[in-house]
Amino acid sequence: MNKSQLIEALAKEESLPIKKAEEVGNTVFGDMEKALINGERVEIRGFGSFKVKQYDGYKGRNPKTGEMITVGRKKLPFFKVGKELKERVDID
Question: How many H-runs (helices) and E-runs (strands) does the chain carry?
């Protein structure tokens, strides 16, 4: 499911016009993005949590040329699935 499909599902489920559902979706994702940019953690109970992780730099190898390169420190968003969602997905 992509963002536009999620917006369509929201509009259908809540009987909203597509434009209003799009506003809601953009507001939710925008606020989550702002929180992560500010170093905050975002938790959605029963679903999971998002946070930004800091990764140290390291020496690596360019796979195309084999040349040694230095990869700098970086911050990346990280998602950890919640216990409830994990259990609901893993039904075998």
Answer: 3, 5
Domain that holds residue 42: 3-89
Sheet bearing 74-81, strands edge to edge: 42-44, 48-55, 74-81
Contacts of 37 (CB under 8 A, 6+ apart): none
The count of domains in the chain is: 1
The CATH code of the domain that includes 85 is: 4.10.520.10
**pTM (2 d.p.):** 0.78
Burial of 91 (0-12, 13-18, 19+ CB in 10 A): exposed
Q: pLDDT tens digit string along 43-91?
A: 999 999 999 999 999 999 999 999 999 999 999 999 999 999 999 998 8
